[in-house]
Structure formats: structure tokens, C-alpha cells
């Protein structure tokens, strides 16, 4: 029975717009194997993703949602915990608090700086992160996705914020989200047996699939175009216009 690791942004939806045929495809894939929704987007708590998916017609539970924010919180808690300066939104903060971690604004007392997508990022936050990291705090990022696919096209992602902190501190962060295997190791573990990663990015989804020995289904509804696929050297195992085509491809 295969395990499906399915990205959300650009695969299931773009922003708040459902991609056509996805609920039916997910229901058919469930008949074939187990499903986890695996996202680098840390802006929402897992329960909020459950609510969002249910609103657009996909029945799921919190046990099927794996976010980079959840994995980052588990990583910090499992490495001694401490006080966390957060560059991120409420979803990331909520996941950290669920692990009984202290959220602080004072860079002087931060043990960790945890960075995710933060749409209110500004110079003051950059300065606090810079001072905390150069002062000895452990630098962690939920993901390095430089763009985020929304209804109107691509927007800057968490990777743009991470790069600014990396540039001024000269420090490389510990990466939790895809393509790092930590996003799985800190949550459900590396799936055993057949596994298919469904995503829309070479640098995250395809790279993770290669690291865990899984097949990769690239969909063209997000950050990657057919032209991008044709130009790449390491080509995905499966290329589809949409995840809606995957059940037919697999004969479900």
C-alpha cells in the first residue's frame, strides 16, 4: 500500500482557490494507499489546514497534516527546548506553543531564531534576528521556498526572508522543511515501502523524493511549467497537468 505525500500550495489549491478535480482525486487515491498533506508553509496551524481543506471539499484530520512549522516545533522541543524568537505568523507561533516552548521578543534571551513566512516582515524584525543569531541563538528555518504560488501568480516566500538574515549574519540555518528529511523524521518518520511525493517544485518536492527513495509526481498547477521540466536534467518520474490526473495514471 503506497504512501502519498501531497504538497498543498500549487497542488491542491492556489491561495484560497481549489484546483479543479482535486477532492475527487484525493478520494480515489485513498482507496489505493495512505495520504499525508506535506507543506512547507508554516503560516497556519495544522488544525487550520484541516478546516481549510474541509471547506473546499477534502475530508481529512490533523493526523494527516504535516507542516514545516509543526516539524520545527518538534525539532526544537526535542533538542532541549528553550526561548524562541519567531519571524513568522500565528500558525508557527501556535505550533511552537503546543510544544510548550517560550516565545520571546527580546533577542538578548533567545535560544533559537525560528523563521517562516512572515508577511509583516520588516527592518526591525531583521535587526532582532540578526542580533539574536550573531549573539549565539540557533538559526532555524521552516523552509527556503523563495516564492509562493497564489491565485494571481507567484509571491515572495519564506526563502526571501531567510536569505536576508543569512546575508547579514553569515550563518546558514538548520533547514526543517522540504527537501530536508527532518520534516518527516520529526513527525511520521520516513515512510517504509512504496511512496509517491506529489508536488510542484524541483528544489523541494523532487529533491525530497530522491533523498527518501520515493517516486515523484510533478504537477504543473504551481511553480513549475512544462518548459521547466523539459529543461531539467533530473526529471520527475511522473509529470501531470494536475493531481486530478494521478488516479487514472495509477489505474485507480
Structure description:
With 252 residues, the chain is α/β, with parallel strands linked by helices. The protein folds into two domains: 3-68 and 179-250, HAD superfamily/HAD-like (Rossmann fold); 79-175, Rossmann fold (3-Layer(aba) Sandwich), CATH 3.40.50.1000. Helices cover 35% and strands 22% of the residues. It has helices spanning 22-30, 46-55, 68-78, 90-98, 123-134, 158-169, 182-185, 202-212, 226-231, 246-250, and strands at residues 3-6, 13-14, 17-18, 34-39, 65-67, 83-87, 102-104, 112-115, 138-141, 147-150, 153-156, 174-175, 195-199, 215-219, 238-240. Strand 4, helix 2 (46-55) and strand 5 (65-67) form a beta-alpha-beta unit. The longest helix is centred in the middle third of the chain and has 12 residues, at 123-134. It is globular, with a radius of gyration of 18 Å.
